[in-house]
């Protein structure tokens, strides 16, 4: 795991979640910029996943490899799903739907970092 | 989130629209997380804590059924959602209380251990929101 990317992912997810909830609170629908930011967050996660996948081959021994890769896959699935749900019915609640996904991504990025750093050697 | 829209409606309101979409999204995330976790636990170390891992699996099924029940707008789905979310609340309360009262019986964590402490107490908040939302959107009594 690249620490810089983890920090960027968690901070970016939390920021996106805050803006998403704010949009809902102010009765606004997410615009193109907000969606682009959500995809940027997803792309960052994808970059991280590729780096981790390469590094995990012959790298440090993970204590729970299945859990780790489960989180890795889940963290990539959540945002595209949420964007689809938010687009299928555009309303003030779309922002909150994306915010929920962003919070989940922040949590999973944190869990991934924890599992990675607790790997031996 | 529940007090956002007031509709003096006679017919049932679909549970999967408006603020309900946020609830469905949250339930879907939990269904994914709980299913994956239970699958890992049962496939890799079932014998170390069978009861806890079976509870994990039960929680996963409940989250999946609740997600389906809330997302669909068919009448049967509403009943499914009531049941699943009700079981979920009972499960969180029972497992939460038991895991604190008799920790030895729960050597491994489940989603519901300690009232969902490991998941920011969301497992305790979600069913309450779910039941409130089902009540708000229900058809008026004849």
- Major sheet details of chain A: none
Distance between the termini of chain A: 14 Å
Spans of chain A of at least 5 consecutive residues whose pLDDT stays below 50 are none
- The backbone outline of chain B, from C-alpha atoms, is elongated
Q: Cα-atom Rg of chain B, whole angstroms?
A: 16 Å
What percentage of the residues of chain A does DSSP assign to strands (E)?
A: under 5%
Give the count of helical stretches of chain B.
Answer: 4
Shape of chain A: elongated
Number of strands of chain A: 0
Helix content of chain B: 55-70%
User: Which structural category fits the helices and strands of chain A?
Assistant: mainly alpha
How does the helix and strand content of chain B classify structurally? mainly alpha
What portion of the residues of chain B fall into strands of 2 or more residues? under 5%
Number of strands of chain B: 0
Task: Give me the strand/helix succession of chain A.
Answer: HHHH
Q: What number of structural domains do the residues of chain A give?
A: 1
Helix content class of chain A: over 70%
What does the average pLDDT of chain B come to? 87
Q: What is the CA-atom radius of gyration of chain A, in angstroms?
A: 15 Å
What can you tell me about this protein's structure?
The complex is a heterodimer of chains A (121) and B (142). Chain A is mainly α and 121 residues long. Chain A contains four helices and no strands. Chain A has one domain (3-118). In chain A, 79% of the residues lie in helices and 0% in strands. In chain A, helix 2 packs antiparallel against helix 3. With 142 residues, chain B is an all-alpha fold. Chain B has four helices and no strands. Chain B starts with 18 loop residues before the first helix and ends in a 5-residue tail after the last helix. The longest helix of chain B has 27 residues, at 19-45. In chain B, helix 1 (19-45) packs across helix 4 (122-137). The A-B interface holds A 24, 64, 66-67, 70, 74, 77-78, 81-82, 85-86, 89, 91, 93-94, 96-97, 100-101, 104, 107 and B 1, 17-19, 21-22, 24-26, 28-29, 32-33, 36-37, 40, 43-44, 120.
